[in-house]
Amino acid sequence: MRLDLAERLRCPNPHVATPLVVVASQVDGRDLRRGFAGCPVCQLELRFENGVAVFAPKPTASAPDAALDATLDAARATAARAASGDADAAWEPSLERVVALLGLAEPGGAVLLTGRYAALAESLAVAAEVTVVVMATAVPTVLGESVARVEGLVSVVPFGDATFRAVALDGDPAMASARRLVEDAVRATSVGGRVLAVASMPRPADTRELARDAAEWVAEREARSAPVSLRRR
Question: What are phi and psi of 71, to 5 degrees?
Fold first, then answer.
């Protein structure tokens, strides 16, 4: 994982937003290969193994099992949808379409991919000249300075606000984790950035839909409206 991305990691646990303290033990250029990170609030631990960020939450011993269970449930649900003839289950993303829908004509920035979109990680990093982070997926990924992977989390994006230029999201809409994933991914997307998702996933607030078809929808991240104070005169 690139050092500049590692420095934007934050604790995924439900407390005040807290940056993780990162300690590198092996760095290759700008790529953090080995090391660890921790949360000063809840003592969550993260280790970096060959560039993969592996979360192992401490506060609840069952948390890693819960993440694994959620991943297995998603795989079972996808298999069931495929067996029932669900068109979305058989859909596969296209590199050219993803580049266009995410507005990646100009190089630079970071992009988050989940689910089946992760299969495009290496080719997207090269074609669009962006840094790619993949998570919440069982798709094998070729890792390097431009492609990083996060494991151990299903519905929380462990990066600070506005980390990503764009995100592409895939998950089972029947699971509560799908809505949480979309909402947290939007938070981690910069204002004006694109959010692409499979058509069956919910589109959250703070986004403006740009287009939709039977396969996908794409929206733009909007700024949150600040509350207006009313004063009596």
Answer: -65, -45
How do strand 45-49 and strand 52-56 relate by DSSP bridges? Answer: antiparallel
- Going by their DSSP bridges, the two strands 110-114 and 164-169 should be labelled as parallel
What's the rounded Cα separation, in Å, for the pair 1 and 7? 10
CATH label, 62-221, candidates 3.40.50.150, 3.40.50.1110, 3.40.50.10610, 3.30.360.10: 3.40.50.150
Span 215-223, average pLDDT: 95
Instruction: Pull the structure tokens for residue 110.
Output: 């970071």
pTM of the model: 0.83
Q: For 80-88, which contacts have Cβ atoms below 8 Å and span 24 or more sequence positions? A: 81/172, 87/214, 88/198, 88/199, 88/200, 88/215
Given a contact cutoff of 8 angstroms between Cβ atoms, the answer to whether 169 and 195 are in contact is yes
- Owner of token pair 């919440």: 136
